[in-house]
Recover the amino acids of this structure.
């Protein structure tokens, strides 16, 4: 940042505080005495270091963490003064550069015309590293790493900006708040409202199901707590009631292990007074009682008899005695994700922020009233169900130029386009596509299977060059119609539109700034010393990069001890030189890294032409090169682009390009800006229409194999599809010999079942998410005409693109992260599924798998992984406002439908009993249906009256499909999923 860096100066002592007040209120300069004290405070750091060897001595601060070479505030930098005694913060701007603590240029600070102190609450800025002078950049919030001049100019409405100090003379208070918008200073009530509103919409039915038993159990607990002199048996009864309350983990009930200690705490005067005031609180006396509660909590904090009772425990028991106005505040009801979004400091976990606790209780009672939430405990329930995934879209309402709401879902978008789909079907399709990338749409003809994909593709990119529609033909017997083939008679490869789309998807993924900025970049000179471009054309033509030192032999055959003996020499700048560069070529360069290779130089302009590509193979040794390039240490490269630059080449063969200047060589950012084709890669969609007109297992076999191979560290499939084995095709037509599918590729097949088509094998269905389009709602067709503004459409497009991109990962998911230490996407998703609904869903999966095992219809680990990922992705996209589900039950229900039932394929003798096993698990409590007694008549009766009968099933979608398959068994003796 060239201008406007933000710093903190710590100040202590009453006299210094008075001086600051004087500066702020009167705008005077720093007094001589204060300058002296500031100088003393600066020198409380360890002695400065004198660096010798220069014309003049250069002094640096010596920070405790050992980092040297720190710079000082310059003219125009912003200074935050922290007065430690009162925890107040003042902001100013330097009028002179501070070059040295001994230098007399340490002069006055000019404040931003502020008429009174700027005070941050304790929740606003809490602790900073223990140094006197701190550069905030990157310490509090990465978003401060911006050009402050631009920030001020963007945020100042009156445009009266000083050209030298870049602050507004007319609206200083407003501009000050804009400078510090990224530092949380108070509870963000609008975001809290948005979260509660969204959570209520999703989970109100779930709350209604447990509300009565929750409040009844609390009333029993309240009756015990009102007794005079609680006994051990009373505590035991309380503990038992805690186990009966629904969503027990939400409350985090705490009891001392020793019952006698528990009796002392529950009979403590302060604790009982606290519960009595909480119980007597109502709408009229809420403010006054909270002041009393504040005083009591302060006493409890200092009291030795109840020292183990914290705010979290107090909040829980206050909620028990008065659930209308109080809620438990702990890590389950206010997760770290919520705390970050609403700018609220955690008040539990050993921290006694009594002010923060009281403020939150006031706010939650105000918000619940506005949102028609009956009790604080209901609000707590909604907050406890909040997803722990990062949610970009939970913000206060966005508006476009016409002040119209932009918060629309995919369902509303499709309806505005004239298409009528059940809400759950859209959510099911979108989440399946996001989770797996291979989705099969089956069902009735004319229900919009193709249209839903076309509309999504057009929403993502109106140009449609990232979308391909292919009609499957009955004569397809292999992959040639999809991927093309090599013709030995003509010596050419016949490309297809699908292959071109795949190559474009790969290229766009690699050449997006999002990808390039994450990867290391190398310069490699492919030639002998003094001739850096000697073998470059060969390397470019044959798709590799190479270095010499032939006498070393194949590095893969060398032991670690032998490799250690290879000299690693470094010049005075630290660059690797000579034979040691072979170790870099072997060990440091990774698949997916980018490479720059000079291929020619214009002697007139002195410009080099560079080839730019991506490393796509590990190190290999070419023992007897036949291509004219004698260099034997090699790696495969996918060359993607060329660019020109007036550059001085580094003298070493291998050089990592970073954002630092090496003579006249472009830095990493400059090269990325030159070669990148787009900021972010787009999703690429393929529709295989009427997919089952030919045998899918024949023409789609290559795709089925590689899609199940997993993903490499860059997101591509681990295995590749073999296209040809001809060097000339690769060199002159640019078609690689083999192709890995990129992570931004999505494939959708549509299916109609009749006598002209082939049925899918369970193997195919198992490798996809299969969705059935069965519902037709003629009463509401066509849908009411609605119009969306361009702003609404654009906002939805942005949300969907961000959601599918997953920070550049797209479809790539891993069991473990790259270092094998942190949990990966799959492990996190499994953990989340195990914890959902107190482990209910995980228990059902276990029961179902055990029950199906005797029939050989149980499922493997991959199915469980995909159910967990679908569950996680569904909640994430739901929270992002893209799709809608009725509840978590519906998400789990749809996952079972798509990943368990497709294996069911066979006659009545094989399927009847296992289908009834599944149906049994789909029943609600007290459904009143004896599954074993169901026959054709009873099944048809349930299906005919489905709108009333569906309430008897907790997993309605899976149950309905099972009933339809049972009907098939009874009518024709055979059933299958598709």
């Amino acid at each position: 940042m060239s201008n406007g860096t933000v710093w903190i100066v710590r100040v202590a002592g009453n006299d210094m505080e008075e001086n600051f007040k004087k500066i702020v209120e009167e705008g005077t300069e720093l007094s001589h005495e204060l300058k002296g004290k500031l100088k003393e405070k600066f020198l409380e750091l360890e002695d400065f270091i004198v660096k010798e060897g220069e014309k003049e001595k250069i002094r640096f601060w010596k920070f405790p963490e050992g980092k040297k070479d720190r710079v000082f505030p310059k003219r125009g930098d912003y200074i935050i003064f922290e007065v430690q005694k009162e925890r107040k913060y003042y902001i100013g701007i330097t009028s002179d550069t501070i070059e040295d603590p001994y230098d007399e240029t340490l002069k006055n600070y000019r404040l931003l015309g502020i008429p009174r102190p700027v005070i941050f609450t304790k929740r606003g800025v809490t602790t900073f590293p223990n140094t006197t002078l701190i550069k905030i950049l990157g310490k509090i919030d990465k978003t401060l790493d911006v050009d402050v001049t631009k920030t001020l100019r963007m945020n100042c409405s009156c445009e009266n900006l000083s050209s030298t100090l870049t602050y507004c003379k007319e609206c200083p208070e407003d501009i000050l708040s804009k400078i510090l918008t990224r530092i949380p200073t108070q509870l963000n009530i609008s975001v809290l409202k948005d979260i509660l509103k969204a959570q209520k919409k999703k989970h109100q039915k779930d709350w209604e199901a447990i509300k009565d038993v929750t409040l009844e159990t609390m009333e029993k607990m309240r009756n015990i707590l009102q007794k005079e002199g609680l006994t051990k048996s009373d505590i035991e009864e309380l503990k038992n009631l805690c186990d009966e309350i629904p969503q027990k983990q939400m409350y985090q009930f705490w009891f001392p292990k020793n019952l006698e200690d528990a009796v002392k705490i529950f009979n403590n005067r302060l604790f009982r007074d606290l519960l009595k005031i909480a119980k007597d609180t109502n709408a009229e006396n809420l403010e006054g009682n909270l002041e009393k509660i504040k005083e009591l909590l302060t006493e409890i904090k200092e009291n030795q008899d109840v020292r183990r009772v914290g705010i979290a425990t107090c909040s829980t028991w206050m909620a028990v005695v008065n659930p209308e106005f109080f809620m438990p505040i702990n890590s389950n009801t206010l997760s770290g994700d919520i705390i970050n979004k609403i700018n609220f400091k955690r008040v539990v976990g050993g921290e006694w922020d009594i002010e923060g606790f009281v403020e939150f209780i006031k706010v939650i009672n105000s918000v619940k009233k506005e949102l028609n939430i009956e009790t604080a405990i209901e609000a707590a329930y909604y907050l406890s169900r909040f997803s722990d995934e990062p949610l970009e879209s939970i913000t206060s309402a966005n508006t476009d130029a016409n002040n119209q709401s932009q918060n629309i879902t995919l369902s509303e978008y499709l309806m505005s386009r004239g298409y009528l789909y059940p809400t759950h079907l859209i959510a099911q399709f979108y989440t399946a596509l996001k989770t797996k990338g291979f989705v099969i749409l089956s069902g009735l003809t004319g229900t919009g299977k193709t249209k839903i994909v076309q509309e999504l593709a057009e929403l993502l990119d109106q140009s449609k060059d990232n979308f391909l529609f292919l009609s499957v033909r009955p004569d397809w017997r292999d992959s040639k119609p999809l991927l093309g083939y090599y013709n030995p008679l003509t010596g050419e490869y016949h490309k297809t539109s699908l292959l071109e789309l795949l190559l474009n998807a790969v290229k766009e993924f690699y050449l997006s700034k999002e990808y390039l900025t994450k990867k290391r970049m190398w310069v490699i000179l492919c030639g002998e010393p003094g001739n850096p471009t000697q073998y470059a054309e060969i390397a470019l033509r044959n798709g590799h990069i190479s270095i010499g030192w032939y006498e070393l032999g194949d590095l893969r055959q060398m032991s670690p001890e032998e490799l250690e003996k290879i000299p690693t020499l470094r010049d005075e700048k630290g660059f690797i030189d000579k034979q040691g560069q072979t170790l870099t070529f072997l060990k440091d360069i990774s698949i997916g890294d980018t490479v720059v290779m000079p291929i020619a130089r214009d002697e007139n302009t002195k410009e080099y032409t560079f080839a730019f590509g991506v490393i796509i193979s590990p190190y290999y040794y070419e023992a007897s090169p036949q291509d004219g390039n004698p260099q034997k240490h090699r790696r495969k490269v996918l060359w993607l682009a060329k660019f020109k630059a007036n550059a001085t080449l580094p003298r070493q063969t291998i050089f990592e390009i970073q954002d630092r200047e090496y003579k006249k060589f472009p830095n990493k950012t400059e090269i990325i800006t030159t070669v990148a084709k787009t900021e972010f890669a787009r999703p690429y969609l393929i529709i295989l229409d009427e997919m089952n007109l030919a045998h899918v297992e024949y023409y789609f076999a290559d795709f089925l194999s590689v899609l199940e191979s997993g993903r490499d560290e860059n997101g591509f499939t681990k295995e590749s599809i073999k296209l040809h084995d001809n060097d000339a095709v690769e060199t002159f037509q640019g078609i690689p010999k083999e192709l890995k599918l990129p992570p931004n590729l999505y494939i959708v097949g549509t299916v109609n079942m009749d006598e002209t088509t082939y049925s899918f094998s369970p193997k195919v269905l198992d490798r996809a998410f299969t969705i059935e389009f069965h519902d037709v709602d003629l009463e509401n067709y066509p849908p009411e005409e609605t119009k969306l503004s361009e702003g609404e459409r654009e906002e939805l497009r942005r949300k969907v693109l961000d959601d599918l991109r997953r920070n550049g990962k797209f479809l790539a998911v891993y069991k473990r992260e790259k270092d094998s230490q942190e949990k990966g996407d799959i492990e996190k998703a499994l953990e989340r599924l195990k914890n959902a609904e107190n482990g209910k869903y995980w228990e059902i999966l276990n029961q179902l798998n055990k029950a199906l095992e005797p029939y050989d219809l149980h499922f493997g680990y991959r199915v469980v992984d995909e159910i967990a990922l679908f569950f996680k992705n569904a909640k994430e996209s739901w929270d992002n406002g893209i799709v809608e589900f009725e509840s978590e039950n519906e998400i789990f229900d749809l996952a079972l439908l798509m990943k368990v039932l497709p294996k069911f394929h066979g006659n009545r003798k094989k399927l009847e009993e296992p289908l009834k096993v599944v149906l049994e698990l789909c029943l609600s409590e007290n459904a009143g249906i004896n599954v074993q007694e169901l026959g054709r008549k009873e099944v048809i009766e349930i299906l005919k009256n489905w709108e009333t009968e569906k309430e008897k099933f907790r997993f309605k979608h899976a149950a309905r499909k099972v009933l339809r398959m049972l009907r098939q068994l009874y009518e024709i003796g055979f059933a299958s999923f598709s």
About this structure: The mean pLDDT is 78.
